[in-house]
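fold-stage: in
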Amino acid sequence: MKRILLFFFSLYSCLFALGQGFGAQVHVAANFSQVDGDQLGGYNKLGLNAGLQINRTIKEDWEGAFEIRYSMKGAKKVIDPEAPATFTLKLNYDYVEVPFLLKYTKYDKITPFAGVSVGANVRNQREENGIVSNEQALNFMELGFHFGGNYHLTDKWGIDLRHSYSLVSVRDFPIVVNSPTWFGRAGWYNRLFTAGFTYTP
């Protein structure tokens, strides 16, 4: 309940900013996520991603924007129907995050963007073989990187596609590395694709 109240308070703060010459978009989307480093593969964890974007033109063909989003991340082990289930695992990591984006607005039908985000973990749940617990040493804060684009269906409606990745490990815990890592990094990193709709009032 507390995380929901925090999220809507943040949305209210963003709506207040609209009176200061800013524009807005409402976002409703789905996350397809995994956690790099947990030894599970595939974007098998489905979750909600919803929030509000506040934007403003900073120069010709460029906009700056920040968002308030509730993002459900994590990972899930897929059960093979042809093999007996000996191990089940589902990681539920929910965040209230604030991405800061730079948008290129020259094109008529698509607006590419990229930026970084700061997120606060508001749900930490590990379901392993039916036993529910908290993930050990999961960090409260997450720093992330985002890039993607918005395809404009109409003046008000669009399709938002983006990829997001943790810049630093989200778990402060000894890591056993069994495979090559990017740039020699070891740790746990949220990785997700997000697809959904935007509405501009």
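fold-stage: in (second)
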Amino acid sequence: MIDNRRLHLWYKYTRYALAGVAIFLTAFSVIPFRAGAHLAAASANADVKVLGTSNLHSWSMEDKDVACSARFTYVAGKAIPVSLAIFTFSFPIHSLKSGESGMDSKAYGAMKAKTGGNIVFAASSSTIVPGTANKFSVKSNGNLTIAGVTKPVVLTAACLVKTDGSITCTGTDKLLMTDYRIKPPTYMLGALKTGNALTIDFTMVVMK
């Protein structure tokens, strides 16, 4: 009887132990699944403006249809993304337009459009800072290439999640032409001289 009772108790506690192990393993197998259950927003396009100055007036060039790759990831059920895994854009220098063909021609020459090709940005890392309600900001470290010269830059954007789930991001970056070995162009036989400083404004719309 004693041996049978001990055997019965052993089976009883073994079942409890196995049940506990099963619950433990189930719980910890579910957690990574939930953490990895992300939805991605990846289709994007952008409007990029290049703003500058001169001794006579300010000027701007714009490309309203810049193709981007942007992939935000979300925790299921949350409106604000938790990370930005991919952020790149690339567009031909020739697609920038000022509305003045003479100025465009000078700018293309200065930016080495024939040999430099495209203006390219590729983020190496991005950080999302949550804001209030449906707003957040993104800080992206990466490389910007202009006229064949690549420099590290930090792009910061303010982002807004719309009711349809799309995300609109707007940001600004300031740089110097000479950093990219661009000689500030002149016009009208030198009467108009452009300044060295440039401002790049971008508005990116990411569709979910």
